[in-house]
Design goal:
Elements: E1 16-20, H1 24-35, E2 39-44, E3 57-60, H2 65-75, E4 78-83, H3 90-103, E5 107-110, E6 125-127, H4 130-136, E7 143-145, E8 164-167, E9 180-183, H5 190-199, E10 204-208, H6 217-224, E11 228-232, E12 242-244, H7 247-257
Helix pairs in contact: 2-3, 5-6
The structure holds NADP nicotinamide-adenine-dinucleotide phosphate.
Amino acid sequence: MAGAGPDKWSLGPAVTVLILGGTAEARALAAELVADGIAVVSSLAGRVSRPALPAGGVRVGGFGGAAGLVHYLREHRIAAIVDATHPFAAQISANAAAAAEQTRTPLVRLERASWREHANAGEWTWVPDVAAAGEAAESWPRPFVTTGRQSLEIYLPWADREVLVRVVDPPVIALPERWTVLRSRGPYTEVDERVLMLDWRVGSLLTKDSGGEHTAAKLQVAAELGLRVVVVARPAPPPGVHTVRTLGAVRAALRRADT
Ligand code: NAP
């Protein structure tokens, strides 16, 4: 757009950017765009109680598949979509790609770096899904499970084992009495993780490739303590979507979308 320098935002309040959110990065992006005077609507799935709310407009709940998202994009005259959802939220990302293509709405995906690039990644057991994580850690000592509350059913056969589970929201299924369930929300520092893992005498770690430095502390401490680690790999992203890692790169992509 004429007159728009590299630091001057060219999208105006007449258009709305839809941020598919539910992550810290999505909230940070919403804050930056709102500060730039851009009309923003962040969309949350509505899964967690008391979600951290982003700046700007917010809507909550599913759209009704890709078709529902197409309808939403048209009805609200969305100028561009930023898919800043979690790397494991594969369905909404696929829907965003399909709806963007159908409506010819510019789409950019903001995705944290994978832990594949972590210095210790070669020492971990990488598996394609949570079921395989359960199989890998079947005989490992005192597992610390951080693969999310929706994954817990897989580990129920471990009822007679000492298991430490950390979740944000309460599990929706009854868990064995021997297990210890911690409810908390990150990010965690290495000090936090070291204290927890030493206190509880964690013997092994089950996690997924959520990525991002602010969630890497437990992997750092696991390496220090020489623990066995299994990591669930990310689902494949939808093909052909422009993917970036920084807020600056999202803004650059949106500026291009506006020209
Ligand atoms: P998912 O499996 O990809 O999505 C399932 C359905 O939930 C989607 O088809 C969509 O329903 C709805 N949905 C998901 N994200 C939405 C959003 N941001 N706005 C509106 N509707 C959304 O997603 P998920 O793995 O359950 O994750 C749900 C949300 O939690 C995401 O926003 C994600 O960023 C966040 N989150 C996920 C994880 C994780 O490990 N999966 C971790 C942290 C945060 P309709 O088809 O009806 O539109």
